[in-house]
Design a protein that fits this description.
InterPro entries: Big_10 (IPR041280), LD-transpeptidase (IPR050979), LD_TPept_cat_dom (IPR005490), Transpep_catalytic_dom (IPR038063). The protein contains 4 helices and 21 strands. It is mainly beta and about 325 residues long. Strand 18 and strand 19 form a beta hairpin. The protein is globular.
Amino acid sequence: MKPVPSTLALIALVAATACSAEAVQAPAAQPKAAAVHAAAAAGPASPAKTMKLDIADITPMAETTEKVGVGFPIIVTFDRDVKDKAAVEALLEVQAEKPVEGAWRWVSPKKVIYRTKTYWKPHQKILFTARLSQLPGNAAKDITRRFAVGTANISVVDTRRHVMKTYRDGKLAKKIPISAGRGGLIKNGVDVYLTTSGVHLTMGKKAVETMTSSWMGVTDPKDPRYYKEEIPWAVRISDSGEYVHQSAGYYQYLGRSNQSHGCVRATPAGAKWFYTIAQRGDVVKITGTKRKLDWQNGWSYWQLSWTQWQQGSALKS
């Protein structure tokens, strides 16, 4: 099924999946002689103009608003393209009460993301500081944000055995019967009915999410393939529309076979429990399907190896 985009969706859809939300011209060069004359007439070079590079958004939210999971990334979006990425990156600092190695990776001219080599340690505070006032000629002030890491929620979804096991701080807390994507709908060479295998992170949740068939281009209620359903306890795990959510009926398949359009369907009690404990940045590792999760699909940054991740830094190691 495919839902209406929530405010927590961060990036455009990477690939269609059944469980997605409803949804100055440069001046001409001077001749050499004229250029030399112009330079002589200009006299000494004037000082560089004051600029202002600032931060437009930081994700996740501060410690007073939310606790985050042990896989969470720090996502920093600037208000303009960053020309000297190395200089700016050198001014971004992350201090954890329980330190682990981490690195920044640039994913666009405006956006840089911090990921750790291994998961964060749970139950701690992390301080992010952007010392933008130290950037030469920059008029912006320094910015800080403190994050709170909560319980280490790590869930493993086995699509072949049709079960999700959730561990909290290393201990098995619950086993939930599930039904994953059944497969069978090929778009651009991809079976979009298959759940993606890989390390997902929870990105947000809604007590009730509206899911429709519009992702397939089916919007006519008279079409036998049309659906529009209000789905309880929906926790988003990708940008392409995958959720862990309560099954809309069909409980006979839970724990027995894969019958969904790509989401992980769970029992009413199991889905509600998972929704209740879910924090943004919790780890959901899915195994057993032939469709691989793309690292740019949502917060799926753990799909890259540590060496691959470090290659996106502007700083020379």
